[in-house]
Write the C-alpha cells for this entry.
Amino acid sequence: MSFLDSWFTSKKRREKPSALLLGKILETMRESVVVIGEDTRILAFNKSASESFGRKNGGLKDKRLSEILRDLTLHDAFRRALEEGKSSDLEMEIPGIEKRRYDAHIAPVELDGIKGAIGIFYDVTHVEHLERVRQEFLSNVSHELRTPLTSILAFVETLEDGAIRDEENNQRFLAVIRKNAQRMHHLIDDILELSSIESGQVRLQPKDVNLNALIEEIFTNLSTKAVERKIKLTNKVPESTFVFADAVRLEQMLTNLIENAVKFNSEAGSVTINFEQKDSTDIISVNDTGEGISAEHLQRIFERFYRTDRARSREIGGTGLGLAIVKHLAILHGGEVSVASASAKGTTFSVELPKKIE
C-alpha cells in the first residue's frame, strides 16, 4: 500500500469512498504528492513521491517530514498549512548524486474529518536544464554570428570610405568579407542540420557501403587541406570492407572527423583510419598525431559549440557544431561515437555502427 494507507486501515474510512477515490486519482499523477498529519508524520504518498523521496530514506511510511525532506522553508510552508490554513508556493532543491529541483505547492487539506497538509511537488529539473541549454545555445549563436558580422561591416565601411579605389587592398578586403560571409553561411547550415536531426526530420536509408572506397573519396576531397598542413592521410581499411549505414550520413560523419583531424593536427603529422569488427558492431576509428585533448575537455567534446581552444578554432575555421552532428547521426544509426585522447599523445575518435541483421 502507498497512498492513504493509514486512512484505509480503519473500518470507518473504508465505509467512506472519498479517501479511496482521492487515492486512486493521485496514484495516476506524475507529480509527487505527500500528505502529513498534524504531528507532521506522513499519512499518505503516491508512487512518484516514493520514488523521488523514499529510496534513500528507507521508504516514506510513518516517517516524519523532517526525516525525508530537510528544507526549512518547506517545513515552514507545511506548518502554515497545518496551523494557519494557508497555502504556499516555493522552489526547492534536493541534493544528491544528481540534484533535483522542484516547484512545490503546499496547502491545507481535510478528508473524512482528518486535518492535514498536502504537498504537490513538480519536478522541474529537466525543464530548467532545457532552459539553460536554450539560453546557452542562443548566446553561442549570437556570439558566433556577431564575430564575422562585425568584421564584414567594418570592411564594408572601409571600402565605402574610399578603399574601394585602393587597388592594392580592395580585393583583399573583399576576400575577408567573403570568408566571413561563408563562415556565417556554414554556421546557419549546421544549425539547421542539427535542428533537423534532433527533431526527427532526418530519415536514414541504410545499405551496404564500401568503407574503403568512401574513405578514399573523402581523402581526395580533403587532399588540398592536408597538403597545406603537410598531413599524411592513411587508409588502413581493407578494400573489401562493407558497413551497413546511410552512405550520405556516414560520409558526413567521417568527413567531419577526418577534417578535424587534419585541422587540429601537428604540422607534418598524420591521420590514420582503422577498422575493427566486434560481435554486433563495426568500429571505424580516426586517429591523429596532434596535441591531444586533456581529460577536463573530453566529457564535453560533443556538446554544441564546445571548443577546447576557442581562439584557435575560430582562426582555422569551424562552427563548433560538427561533433554534435556526428554524435546525433551515430545515435540515429543505432550506434555511438566516442573519443580517447591525452595531451601530446594524439586523439582517436571511434564510430560504432550496428551490423546488418540478416
User: Anything to note?
Assistant: Residues 1-15 have pLDDT under 50 and may be disordered. Residues 110 and 116 are 6 Å apart (CA to CA). The chain has three domains: 5-123, 125-202, 204-358.
